[in-house]
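name: query_chain
kind: protein
chains: 1
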Amino acid sequence: MRPSTRKAFWIGIGTIAALAVAWDFIPLTDASARLKLLPTSGLGFASRELPLSDTERQVFGKAALIKRVYQVGSDRIILQIVDGTQDRHAVHDPLYCFRGSGWTVTQQRDRPIPGGTARHLILSRNGTAAEAIFWLSDGRERHSSPSRYWWQTALRRLTLGRSGSEPVLIILQPWPGQTISWDDVLTRIGPLFEI
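structure:
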């Protein structure tokens, strides 16, 4: 390798390393302003905060998290929203998390929602059935693709936040033992689609 080529190579490596370190120290705007817009009550629904378990505190680390139970008509649902801006490892593929908790995904399908699609899961564990719906939202578009989320957040970090808002993970589950009408619940909690 010629001396000038070697010098250019090492300058390039040094620049990449410096940028990688800088990206970790440059704060990005999180989704807290959007999360504050989610009302705790409204026409046809009310909610209360749920405490985090020790495991959840460990898994989510510095990430911003909303965990509430919503009463929507006669239905009760558990809502979790995870903003991984401050801890990018806190947002996991929900399929991975459910499987890690001992659930088997027996069915999954895409479900249209305002601004995109969500993933509807049917789960089972030790003879118990459960459901969950999840999607990722940047405030404009909604999707259920973890790989797309990772690309969005990587691009956002590379552009120092100029490529768009931070996507958040939204997970809805019925209160244990309840069967609910998802169409009714999703219609009545319309503010979810403004996050």
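note: The chain is about 30% helix and 35% strand.
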